[in-house]
Amino acid sequence: MLRWPRPQVLPAPAAQTMRSHPHVAPQLDDTTLYGSYSIYSPKAVHIPERPPDVGGFFMASIRFGKDKPKDERTRNWTIIVYEDSAPDNWRDIVAGLHVPAFISPYHDKDVRADGSPKKPHWHLILCFKGKKSVGQIQAISDQLSGVHVDWEHCAVGDLTGMVRYLVHYEDADKHQYEIADIQALSGADVLAHFAEAADVDECVGQMMDWLCEQGITSFAALSRYARAYRKDWFRVLTSKRTVFMAQFCKSLQWEADKGMNPFDGNGGERAVED
Q: End of a domain among 189, 205, 231?
């Protein structure tokens, strides 16, 4: 289920900070860039630890196996970025690539199996239209933290799995980061990777609760709030549960018009007369 906090009364939207430095793109030849989608899924897979100064995942051999290409080229890659070795404008460098990219929340609460803290870091996912080599991705990494890139630890196969891993979505034993803190660049779509049936149902339940908590029956008010503050709700409203939520709003108003209390969470018991 989507891990969003319960909404409060029309909070101010969280500021999305971005470093103000000018874009600095890596010096690569014109065959290096251009992008697509894919990546690995950590679900039900044991991922061994790696040294903190390297980062990455043991997933290429798991996800590709015998299908590993001879030239070790693929479309999607993940890189670790460390704050103490990355330039201040590293996000601008990534944006300057003009390919779909996902940047994780700052992973400053990760721990190893023995309980010792891991070095704080970000996970970066780059999604290319064409296949890229280890060397091409290393050229990008060198512009960031200079983390070593190799096939075994950085090539990826299941995009949805990796995007969900950015918040440890499938790993209840790890610290749970917020989906809202994933930064998407150049058309990358975060919510598309969390839109399972259970996730949609959770969003619907949250919207129903919000309407009752705020005493609102207007579908328009719900839609405006969702558009401004809850992108996950807005997607569900506009693409999956439009009719249901519109009818729910009408039902709340109908109960109110009949002298019932539609906001008590008990199915609209009739209000007690004086």
A: 189
